[in-house]
Amino acid sequence: MKILPYAPDQSGLAYSVGTTLDRFIKLKQSDFPFASGELSQLLRDIALAAKIVNRETTRAGLSNIGGAFGQVNVQGEEQQKLDVIANIRFMRALSKGGEVCAIVSEEEDSVIDLKNSSGKYVVAIDPLDGSSNIDVNISIGTIFSIYRRRTPAGSPIQEKDIMQAGTEQVAAGYVLYGSSTMLVYTTGRGVNGFTYEQSLGEFFLSHPDIQAPKNGEIYSVNEGTQHDWEEGFKSYINQCKERRYSARYIGSLVADFHRNLLKGGIYLYPATKKNPAGKLRLLYEANALAYIAEQAGAMATDGTQRILEILPTTLHQRTPLLIGSQEMVKEAESFLSKPA
Ligand code: F6P
């Protein structure tokens, strides 16, 4: 019997499809000597739910899942049916996976205790970000943060397991349901992006080791609220215009963030009269993107403080957010008045 070593095909007849997310997660598990595979499984659970939500969003116009659900969430925002569907999908995946003990979701008033006290991880999630864009076929996203619980596995969930600063995240990511669907995540060793290949039903590594440009020429802000801005903020945006920067605002944080991360730019949501503490939620929007931003060499602040260092005091706490290319965020911050 002849035994030959495997020789990769050189004919070019069957091009390589690349590295799947599953394989990538497995390869990277050895970066964490103490990890026993639960975090990897948790990331896979999130990816599975993302594929299902991707299926629902792409066929939303054909099935009866568009439009309002008829209820208002804890933020006072009208829930869309797809918000609710995405919440169910992620909740189900996370509860069945067994690695998670508690979930904070934009769509739930309280912390959800999965009654799985052996689970090591807490997940904070915005299942479907950019609700106003759902029904008009514009990019939307999912944002997630993963924390290790502070109390020992096996004991009841406590507030200190949930109210952790962003610096404590062990992983964070987002899924962008855009012209293609992408999953981008970090476990604190750089940022990698994966594009969904519909026909194979897999995410493939398409954006390895994402590095954000240090500077950029795109600013993303809802200028309709400008009469509510503080003077310094107005001056910064005026300067962007004087410099002929491009204004790009989709109104889905994930999509605006993703573009600026790749191309160089800044996303800003300041305090306004309507939202004096800012609009975006610290636990399941700002923290995850701030972690990814920093891991890619970008920056995130609330105007005076690094987002990741803010200690949350309430579950659905809001924060102003300036996030994107380092030089732009530093410059924008320098325009803002400092607290007395
Ligand atoms: O989750 C909040 C959100 O929908 C973000 O995705 C988006 O960037 C922002 O709100 C849009 O807010 P506005 O409609 O006030 O510009």
UniProtKB/TrEMBL annotation:
Cofactor: Mg(2+)
Molecular function per GO: fructose 1,6-bisphosphate 1-phosphatase activity; magnesium ion binding
Binding locations of substrate: D129, G130, S131, S132, N222, Y249, Y267, L268, Y269, K279
Protein's UniProt keywords contain Hydrolase: yes
Keyword Plastid found: no
Enzyme Commission number(s) of this protein: 3.1.3.11
Cofactor binding: number and manner: Binds 2 magnesium ions per subunit.
Binding site for Mg(2+) 1: E106, D126, L128
Fructose-1-6-bisphosphatase class I N-terminal domain: residues covered: 20-208
Family statement drawn from the similarity comment of this UniProt entry: Belongs to the FBPase class 1 family.
Name by which UniProt lists this protein: Fructose-1,6-bisphosphatase class 1
Classification lineage: Bacteria, Pseudomonadati, Bacteroidota, Cytophagia, Cytophagales
